């Protein structure tokens, strides 16, 4: 036991992750237009291949909802047989990027963007799984899911089957929440497992009309890339899809890694190694003809919240997926789908950072705005583009705050007007600078002192030179400009280097 000091915690966490992974694997596969079993194969590879590798110890990989549209379009254009080739080549590209050290660049992600990502994904998961809990088909888009909820509840009220299904889902959530209030000895069994067992027993005992998991054999759907599929690599069309798979899968995985690191105090992610692990997993998925894999924040957060300590939990979750999907599909067929939807609704709720939003709003309203915009963008578009929007907004905010500039004007009534610029003069502050300078009297000489500037970009320098020419063109003495000290320091440094 000393060799595996956290075996109990990791074992229990793996069961929770397994229960979260089953509906995600099946749901993503169906939404992607491929057999449900291909999603399970990707989940198994995520546990047994990527799970063993170094990178992010608590992050769990599998098929991701963020890739469904891309996979669906690829299957529609190139066929299911070509999916393995696309995923295989994307995996090899990820391996190359990992070995080239590109993964570490994904560490440059704002905390507000990470929190916004968690919030947005949580909202989409909750909205989508409410439909699943009621046995209804969810709209395709995040906004559609949320906007359609009132209508979905109205439809459910008119259907006994939908209300029964919703009751199973709500009961599952209630058991998970109340389980933590029970004695410690009882809590040794994960609340999610207890909730699924109780939901399954209730469904069987009362013969409730609710949908259950449908899985057939795995071997029948495994389709390694054939010569025809490999032959498509000769055409340029498929390469655009391959590059898109590699970039989006990598971005989602490493953005997720940044988010998972915020959820625990254990070892931090080694980004290049995580990129290699994802590449290895996708390479194996491609050889099996399965769905592409990314790290999945819902599974990963469930893993952390369930008390996982090492990568053993994610490896074991792959074992359970393989065992039940390959050897005991009949056991999976007993599990009610609304119970699994209830687990995902609870997991999505845990992703929404309520306290962090309030704290950010009180201390840093700009950061809180970035969080909200990121979350809304993910709901409105998708995770990848939503995170990019959040990152762009974060960069703009940082650039704006960094470009503080102060213009002090001294007019003694006679002689030249003295204007002192200090701080960072960038194009973002150019309108303010020019408005102030152009308001100076045209019939008076001006001395413009730039020695207090720490930074002067090209746009500002050009604009100041043009203003000086215009001001001098009225017959006034030419504007006297004192250059920034930063230039003289740089020239001195270059002289030293030259002399040396």
TrEMBL record:
Main location: membrane
InterPro entries assigned to the protein according to its UniProt record, in alphabetical order: SLC26A/SulP_dom, SLC26A/SulP_fam
Coiled coil: none
Regions that span the bilayer: 12-31, 78-102, 109-132, 162-179, 191-213, 233-255, 276-298, 318-347, 368-393
Stretches the record annotates as Disordered: 471-500
Ranges annotated as biased composition (Basic and acidic residues): 489-500
Keyword Glycoprotein in annotation: no
Pfam families for the chain: Sulfate_transp (PF00916)
Keywords for the protein's UniProt record, in alphabetical order: Membrane, Transmembrane, Transmembrane helix
Localization per Swiss-Prot or TrEMBL: Membrane
Limits of the SLC26A/SulP transporter domain: 7-374
Topology in the lipid bilayer: Multi-pass membrane protein
Name of this protein: SulP family inorganic anion transporter
Organism: Streptomyces violaceus (Streptomyces venezuelae)
């Amino acid at each position: 036991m000393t060799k595996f000091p956290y075996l109990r915690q990791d074992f229990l966490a793996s069961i929770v992750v397994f229960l979260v992974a089953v509906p995600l694997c099946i749901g993503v596969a169906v939404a992607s237009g491929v057999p449900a079993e291909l999603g399970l194969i990707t989940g198994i590879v995520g546990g047994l291949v990527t799970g063993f590798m170094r990178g992010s110890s608590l992050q769990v990989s599998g098929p991701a909802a963020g890739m469904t549209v891309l996979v669906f379009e690829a299957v529609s254009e190139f066929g299911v047989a070509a999916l393995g080739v696309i995923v295989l080549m994307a995996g090899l590209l990820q391996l190359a990027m990992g070995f080239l050290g590109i993964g570490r660049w994904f560490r440059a992600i704002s905390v507000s963007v990470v929190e916004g990502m968690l919030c947005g994904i949580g909202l989409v998961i909750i909205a989508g799984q409410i439909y699943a809990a009621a046995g209804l088909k969810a709209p395709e888009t995040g906004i559609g899911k949320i906007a359609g909820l009132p209508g979905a509840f109205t439809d459910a009220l008119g259907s006994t089957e939908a209300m029964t299904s919703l009751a199973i889902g709500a009961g599952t959530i209630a058991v998970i929440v109340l389980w933590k209030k029970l004695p410690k000895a009882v809590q040794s069994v994960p609340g999610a497992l207890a909730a699924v067992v109780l939901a399954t027993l209730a469904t069987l005992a009362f013969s409730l009309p609710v949908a259950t998991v449908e899985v057939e054999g795995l071997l029948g759907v495994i389709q390694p890339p054939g010569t025809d599929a490999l032959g498509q690599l000769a055409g340029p069309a498929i390469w655009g899809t391959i590059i898109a798979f590699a970039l989006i899968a990598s971005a989602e995985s490493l953005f997720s890694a940044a988010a998972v690191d915020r959820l625990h105090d254990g070892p931090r992610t080694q980004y290049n190694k995580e990129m290699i692990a994802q590449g290895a997993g996708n390479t194996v998925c491609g050889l099996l003809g399965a769905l592409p894999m990314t790290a999945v924040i819902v599974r990963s957060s469930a893993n952390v919240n369930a008390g996982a300590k090492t990568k053993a939990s994610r490896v074991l979750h792959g074992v359970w997926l393989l065992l039940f999907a390959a050897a005991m599909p009949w056991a999976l067929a007993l599990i009610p789908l609304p119970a699994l939807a209830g687990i995902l609704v609870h997991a999505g709720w845990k992703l929404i950072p309520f306290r962090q939003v309030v704290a950010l709003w009180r201390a840093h309203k700009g950061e809180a705005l970035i969080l909200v915009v990121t979350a809304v963008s993910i709901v409105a578009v998708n995770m990848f583009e939503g995170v990019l929007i959040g990152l762009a907004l974060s960069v703009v905010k940082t650039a704006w705050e960094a470009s503080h500039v102060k213009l002090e004007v001294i007019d003694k009534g006679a002689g030249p007007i003295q204007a002192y610029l200090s701080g960072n003069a960038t194009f973002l502050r150019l309108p303010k600078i020019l408005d102030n300078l152009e308001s100076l009297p045209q019939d008076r000489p001006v001395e413009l002192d730039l020695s207090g500037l720490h930074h002067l970009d090209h746009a500002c320098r050009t604009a100041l030179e043009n203003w000086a020419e215009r001001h001098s063109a009225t017959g006034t003495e030419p504007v006297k400009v004192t250059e920034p000290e930063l230039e003289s320091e740089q020239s001195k440094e270059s002289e030293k280097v030259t002399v040396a």
